[in-house]
Structures are given as structure tokens and as C-alpha cells.
Amino acid sequence: MSIRGKHFLWLGDFTSEELELILKKAKELKLRYYAGEKIIPLLKGKTLVMIFQKPSTRTRISFEVAMKQLGGFTISLNWYEMQLGRGETVADTARTLSRYVDGIVARVYNHKDLEEMAKHSNVPVINGLSDLFHPVQAISDMFTILEKKGRLQGLKLVFLGDGGNNVAQSLLIASTKLGLNITIASPVKYRPRQEVIKIAEEAAQESGAEIVFEEVPEKAVENADIIYTDVWVSIGQEKEAKERVKDLSKYQVNVSLVKKAKKDVIFMHCLPAHRGQEVTDEVIDGPWSIVWDQAENRLHVQKAILSLLL
Ligand code: CP
Ligand code: NVA
Asked: What's the pTM?
């Protein structure tokens, strides 16, 4: 099985076996890293360009470090300092970059821009977050859950808050492909898009995963193995901030909510967190939280993705 040369725009393009291959490679690379192999030159001499239309800390830095630890080079650019910012088309940019580099990571507002980039690129395009999906985050989160719980199949993950955002939609696909039961706790209007639910339902039929939508947060977290949340206001939604905070406030992850889940529940957040909104300090800094291990694993999983695609 090989995923070499494929674009990584969303997890719907990958079979569960291909996702498992990434998880296996990440485990191997993480073990080797901790055994002292800081540099594993699988991508010696290759170059990755990264284009950011939005801010980033974890994605940008973990990809940069990952590429360097694989023996490669990186170039990180802001979308607006490229000719893209002056109106050069995404297609022409992709055609040009394909002549210089071995892979492209892009973080964009509009997922369609990634599809356009992929259509005109001869090298893999990797989604570093779009309005619709954050696939590198979700696959990394599956790795973290596997590491902490020893399995994915049959566990219950509860996502609380904006169920329609990029992270929630990616977790929905990742979970259902890999057999993890997922509950999305949100108001009805913050549920994932119908097209995404449809793909997740198809995946769930194959894997046996269960999908539940629940409006009552206390009910949602009953028996949860993992509680996950993300910001209520994603990048680009600042104008809706007031309404979103009002609509989602009862989905805050606080100690009283966490105590309604399983005793050994773990708390996850893709970060950055808006402390005091979607999660309280007591939870994110408390014994349930694994957010720093989760952030670290982005590095190991991205090394796996890069080494397999490039
Ligand atoms: N979780 C995540 O993607 O973080 P950044 O926005 O800092 O890259
Ligand atoms: N949903 C958040 C994720 C940030 C990593 C956003 O898009 O801003």
C-alpha cells in the first residue's frame, strides 16, 4: 500500500487502511526520535513550501521542524507577500511551485482554493487548515488517542461546541473511518454540513462506529472516554463572535461537566484555546488534560505524512 504522490486535502480521500498506515509510520518515527534518532533523512534534499493565509503556531512550526528532521528544506510564506496577494491565480501559483518544490502545505480561508491548487499541482498539496477541514490535526489526534488508550475501536469521543467547524468535521470523518464512536454536542445549527455527515455515515457503516448528535451537554458526555473542544469563534468568523459565544456558552467544558464522563476520561483541544470560554483553566490545566502531548504529536504525525506522501 502506498499513498505517495496523493494530495492530503481531507480524510475522505483516504481508506481506513491508508490512515492506519500513517498512524503506524508515526509510531515508528516517534519511537526512533525518542531512541535518539533526531534526524531521519527520508526526505533528504527535498523542499516543502508552506503558504499561510491565516495565522498559525503549531501547524507551521511542526511542519517546519518535521521537514528538517527528515533531512529536507522548508520555505514558509504569507499568502499576501506572494503574488497571490496581488491577484495571481491559485492555478498559476500551483503550476509555478510544482517546478520548484516537492510538496505544498497551504492554510486557506476557502477550501475551494486548495482543490484548485491540487488540480494544477504536480506535487502533493497538504491542507494545513481550511474553512471546512483540518485533516492533519484530526489524524494526529487519532494517534494521540491510540497512544493514550491503546485502541480506537469502540471508544466514545464527545466533541462539544461548534460541531460545524473544520476540526469537528475532520474528527467526524477520522473517527468513523477508524471505528471510534463520536458524539457531537452542539445546537442544531452548529452541526456538521450534511455532505460531511453523509460521508461519515458511509464510513461508519463499514467500521461499525456510531454517530450521535446531542443538544444536551451533560447527556452527551455520559460514558465519554474523550472530551474534545475547540474555539467557538474560528479564524475568519470574528464578526459572528457575539452570537456564537451566546449560542455555545452552555457547551463550555468545565469540571462539573468532565466529572459526568468516565473516571479515566481525557480532555483534548487542538489549540489555541480561548480559556474561560470553551474550556476553563481547571480543565485544560487539570489531570484530565493531555493537550501538550496532543500538540507534540503533530510533529511526529506530520513526519509520517510527509515521508509517505513526498
Ligand atoms: N491546532 C493548530 O492547528 O494550531 P495552529 O493554528 O497554531 O497551527
Ligand atoms: N477551528 C479553529 C482551529 C484552529 C487550529 C480555527 O479554524 O480557527
From this structure: 0.98
